[in-house]
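Sample intake sheet
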Amino acid sequence: MKKKNQTFSRFCEFKALVEKEFGKKIRALRSNNGGEYVSQQFKDFCVAEGIKWELMEPHNPQQNGVAERKNIMILGAARAMLHDQGLPFHLWMEACNTTIYLQNRSLHRILGMKTLVEALSGKRLDASHFRIFGSSFYFHVTKDA
């Protein structure tokens, strides 16, 4: 998002995607007390959709320890991938996105050794497209292209 005022519309898009793609309902939303989350529009939407809305105390990230630890893990893995491949820092966002992509497709004990994607969709994961981050690749362009 480019601006915080897009938060509500993006959340609505995310909710629609989850319901359409996976047939699941969002039951709870935990957020900080940022202005983008505490609008009356957001509150009314959550009430109308039956979403339990949990607001954390301001300046108290310890209340959302799981998310804080996940952020630290993402940053550490991205840093390691860039360092391992000797890649420049401007690829930071790609490294973070790749970390999140792989984390969502890794086995989790709490899910009965399933991936998050598998738990949501019920379909087995195809990992044949996985490659080492930063590795060289080549593609063939046919003459008729």
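Comment: Helices lie at 7-22, 40-49, 65-85, 92-104, 116-121. The chain has a mean pLDDT of 88.
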